[in-house]
Amino acid sequence: MPRSARIGLAAIAATAVAAVAASCGLGPGTGTSNVSLTVTRGFGAGTIATVSERKVPGSETVMRMLERSFTVQTRFGGGFVESINGHSGDSSRHDWFYYVNGVQAGHGAATTGVHKGDRIWWDLHDWTVTDSVPAVVGSFPEPFLHGIGGKRYPTVLECAADADAACATVSARLKAAGVPVASQLLGTGSGNDSLAAVVGTWKEVRPVIAAGLVALGPSRSGVYATFAGTDGSSLQLLDDRGQVAQTLGAGSGLIAATRDSVSAPTWLITGTDLAGVSAAAAALTPARLRDHFALAIAPGGGDVPVPVAAKGSS
To answer: Of 39, 148, 188, 192, which one is least surrounded by beta carbons within 10 A?
Structure first.
């Protein structure tokens, strides 16, 4: 898709999302504190800079904070970021995208207000495969702690019946971060107004809507990983062009997040088997997830950020 067409479609989508947000009472806050702003490239593979501010003005927007902290060039009347500190998009397949509390922005940075505790993340990456990565895990414990658009959502932990140990780990990590958790059996549903963390083997979580999106590939889910085999016995990790770059076998796990058009994000803490699920649950920490769009855990415990960097990509 030509870049101009992509931007045009994004603008149309932004209008629709902004209307929905307005109807839900989401909007710029009256004042805020403890906000961080991270700038990376290559799906978080390279860090450009990070800043934190204990206090920001009540009228602060994502764009104003970015421009106060970095050298920014914009296009289309200031509504589209062209470059940050000299790192620019290009006419073929690289542009800047931003996320607030791990959720891809639904409208322009100039009209997105900043709220208490927000973790703002700009990333310059290849959108050949998809220009929509609806949710990422690299701002954990967000969005569970401070929510989306200033609104905190209930967190529901959905657990497979045989994943008690992994579920206990996930529950403990969320509670340690200050997130109240309600637990229920996998498959009972969490509703559209709750954040869900789903824990179980891929075979068990596959019927969940979010897992179904992952199974359809990154163009639908924004997650550059898929499980192969009828029982999900192997985990295929994709590069930023959507090609299989690495395949993991028994004992591998995955932490990923996505969402459909009407629901709050769902996090998947899953794996090829119970050992992989436990490995994924153990990786649910800010340090291990930081600045990763999704994270795979190889057998033996090695972390593999997803997407895997393609040879020759930047």
So the answer is: 188
* Structure token digits, residue 243: 């090609």
Cα gap 124→201, rounded to integer Å? 32
Q: Which sign does the torsion angle of CA 191, 268, 215, 241 carry? A: positive
Residue 187 to residues 7, 161, 166, 174, 202, Cα–Cα distance (Å)? 37, 10, 17, 21, 13
What's the one-letter identity of residue 74? T
| pLDDT one-digit tens code per residue, 71-106 | 999 987 777 899 999 999 887 789 999 999 999 988
Helices 274-282 and 164-176 pack at an angle, to 10 degrees, of 10
What is the Cα–Cα distance from 131 to 218, expressed in whole angstroms?
10
Q: What is the DSSP secondary structure assignment for residue 177, as one 8-state letter?
A: T
Query: Looking at the chain, which runs of residues are DSSP E strands?
Result: 32-41, 46-56, 72-75, 80-84, 87-88, 94-100, 103-104, 119-126, 155-159, 181-185, 195-201, 225-228, 234-238, 244-248, 253-258, 266-271, 294-297, 303-306
The number of CA neighbours under 13 Å toward the Cβ of 84 is: 28
* Residue 211 to residue 29: CA distance in whole angstroms: 33
